[in-house]
């Protein structure tokens, strides 16, 4: 089948787009595509947006500022997660220790043994998957 398009990124809504970008930068080692401005930037059309630079220019993660963001509630359907990210790791315990140190929260509901569910600082669920 011939592709219609090439996947470029996944974007997460959040109340602090630069803060959440730094959180995922600490997980992936990818750099932010720009630093936050020193003050308000009413003339900057990208003021509400920041991306991580993926090595080799592949698909990446973007973060969009949404002042009234309501985090998803997982599990459940009142405020569904809508999407989540998975990260492969060789050692769940070692990776968990590092995640908690940078601000992740381990979700109280853990449905499996080969993966673990966490919440990022904006409340988005994501998983570590043992490889």
Automatic annotation (TrEMBL):
Q: What is this protein called?
A: Glyoxalase
Organism lineage:
Bacteria, Bacillati, Actinomycetota, Actinomycetes, Pseudonocardiales
Q: Which Gene3D superfamilies match?
A: 2,3-Dihydroxybiphenyl 1,2-Dioxygenase, domain 1
Return the SUPFAM superfamilies for the record: Glyoxalase/Bleomycin resistance protein/Dihydroxybiphenyl dioxygenase (SSF54593)
Classification via InterPro entries: Glyas_Bleomycin-R_OHBP_Dase (IPR029068), Glyoxalase_6 (IPR041581)
Q: Which residues form the signal peptide?
A: none
Q: Which residues form the Glyoxalase-like domain?
A: 10-129
Record Pfam families: Glyoxalase_6 (PF18029)
